[in-house]
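Q: My collaborator sent me two sequences in one message, no labels, and asked for predicted structures for both. Can we handle them in order? The first one she listed is below.
A: Yes, handling them in the order given. First sequence, followed by its structure tokens:
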Amino acid sequence: MRESPIQIGSISLQGFEIPQSVRFGGRHRLAVHNLSGGRRVLERLGPDDGEIAFQGIFSGRNAEARVRAFDDLRLSGEIVWLTWETFKRRVVLKSFVAEYHSPWWIPYKVSCVVAYQSGVASGNSTVTALISSDLGNALAAIAGSAVALTLVQSALSSTNAMTTGTTNNVQAVAAVGTTLDVINGQIGQQSAVVTAPLEPNVGSASLCHNLTSMVSSAGLLATAVNAKSYIGRIGRTLNGARI
């Protein structure tokens, strides 16, 4: 990287200040829901950038002044652009550590927290993507169950369903409400089976049948609750209100 300048805020690194490498990256946050029968639903929650770190050496007659400028940036907590090569991130200078050897030779280490990176859409511009993801997860959750989401699917496919206040949007919200009523009914039905006391003094065959029914209902209950969470969030995304 010594041939490629790196800039943070108004500070453009030069000479030995330019790091040999920049450590960056991160992960994508996931909520993993393990369902009955070994099925798994992955809820994608968005990117989670790790800290960006690099190091170099301030040298020459301006080394002390350059160090002070870096430390002032750390003290300010200001969100600034960090750029190198084709990479660009909005960051806060979290950590700046300098080792003062002499007025003209001061090694340093920097760690930055990413506040924003170009090319990653904001929450307001990804309503459709969020709803599509939640609907996909809900459909995966109900696979093999008696819960149907065709009403919501049809309503969301309508033009302007994602635009708050439009007729299609109101109909989509209503479809979500109706679907939640159906799911709540399923939850109530399966909960009654799961919590019903076992009959005393019954034969082993009847007991086995009752236990099997309870286990099956427990799986269906988990499926319905999981689907309800996604459908409910679709409603909240559609109109910003609690459904």
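Q: And the one she listed second?
A: Here it is, processed independently of the first:
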Amino acid sequence: MYKCSKPITTNDDLASWWKSLGIGLQWIFRRSGPLAIGINQGGLFTSILPGSASPEIQFHFATLSADLAGAKPHPWPGFTMSVCQLRPTSRGHVRIKSKDPLQAPAMQPNYLSTAEDRRAAIAAIRYARKIAETAPMREYVQEEYRPGAALASDEQLLEFAKDFGATIFHPTGTCRMGSDT
């Protein structure tokens, strides 16, 4: 997440009652504007690990920043580069806890439990930083908000990924379906 140097982000529009009303009216009368599209207005698929045959990371570029998806936007101009690993090697489990079918199962996703996934998370954060440092982006970056420039080592970036990483609303299961013959 970055603080933007210019008041041009969705954070700025949502901070104003009048601009928020305008966004709503634009949708009602023209079916256009910010409510007509997703908040992620850009994307990128890229390979970041040595020897990759295909991209293993997807970036989502959002024109707002908030502490959590769906939370109130920050009170300053901000944007977010979310990084998503496309083919994680970590495997979790879902286990029945009770004979009662209404009892929720025990779920353990085991995010970042493999060395490859940990390397990918660290490399993805570093790659996002490289994008923010490019000439076209530099004029829009006031400062890195999260993880923050003070977190620089692999260990610190991994801890950040563990503390702030989340799914993006469509995790899938790993149960075998069909036969392998």
